[in-house]
Amino acid sequence: MPQCPNGLLSELRDHACSVVLGEPCFSIGGGFVHTMSEIHQTVAPLRQDFPLGIDSARCMLEMDDASGLSIVPMQQAGQEMSSKFK
Question: In whole angstroms, what is the distance from residue 63 CA to residue 13 CA?
């Protein structure tokens, strides 16, 4: 999708395969998803000041290699750390 490389179009179709409801969504990193109206208001690059702030898939994979953790435990650790900053 031209708005973001991590776009997904979800559609609900009826028995005739006609679209009843559709909404594009965009993964903007850090477990956050924006709708089409929100993506136009997003300022990139998104950065977080948390200990595991991740601003791209490449960064996440590099951290994965360096830490020896897979993506899921690394994201869980980041979520736990970020909740302490709220």
Answer: 40
